[in-house]
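Input/output pair, single chain:
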Amino acid sequence: MSGEPSPGERFARIALTRVLEPGDAIGGRWLREAGAQEVLRRLGGDDERLPGVSARRWEGLRARTAKVRPEQDLAAARDVGGRFVCPGDAEWPVTLDDLGDARPVGLWVRGRPSLRMWGLRSVAVVGARACTQYGAHMAAGLAAGLAERGWVVTSGGAYGVDGAAHRGALGAGGATVAVLACGVDRAYPRGHTELIDRIAEQGLVVSELPPGDHPTPSRFILRNRVIAALTRGTVVVEAAYRSGALATARSAQELGRFTMGVPGPATSGLSAGVHELLRGDGVLVTDAAEVVELVGDMGELAPVRRGPIVPRDLLGSGVQRVLAALPARGRAAVRDVAVGAGTTEDDAVGRLYELQSLGFVERHGDGWQLTRQVNPTVSAAEKGS
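Output:
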């Protein structure tokens, strides 16, 4: 289907969100080949079943179709400030088309911003529900840093890393999207009711499922493909070997999106899945700047990482060799310093006087030694005072 959907096509897609399960590629093929109105008509009539499903499955879909009430679903969505967005709409994120026949029939959306526009600069931050304090800290910090740089933080609204990511973005006054595995008029988990409502006010709450629908284990896994497709990259913060967050990362890889991971302790089971990701095609990141360098536009580079610069780092190589030739304790004659530095005595003298002017060494008679600021172990007795 191309172009803006007709009212009939839109209405049929609204009905089919209650009939077809998320990620149903067979149903997606029907929609592509016949259109939503024809699929709904066939499911609601006595026609021969569409190809690709058993008679038992067809009857199950027909039983669901008999119970659809699109008008009621639209009214329930409007009651919470929601709307329905489907392929062909100006707000439809075209990146979801990368899912092929498994793309959503449509999306129920709460919130004022345009989902399509927000998806253009969006990063997924996902991870363990039972995360550690470290995981929550990293997720919140990454999300806040991304939000401050003008990026939208997308996650699943769950406990743990998801919640920390949403709160980090909201706390920075930024944008965040929660993709739910239930209707947009429901908060799951219940403990995140206030958070989900706040996201709907400041950002967007999205779901494939119609209002009032409940989550199931399979819907959580299938929801992850939408998170991956909506965003330009996925960051995993803490994930065990069996983790839904890794399913999001795998979906991102299959779609050609960037996959990133935040490392944790080598002994932590909650970071084992992340480390496995990093051993493959995942990229190690530690802050928002490194994420943006990967997913952002050309020139959005993370700062060069280096340790603190100490005074001796600023010395020339020849001067550094002379300084290194002085013993840690006691004094040395110019001849011994020159041999240790691999240079002439005249050159060594010149370098020593340069070091003296910079406060690195002291001269005592015919000998030279390190100053206390360079070597605190130098005692008053060794300095001859």
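The first strand starts at residue 82 and ends at 85. The longest helix spans residues 133-148.
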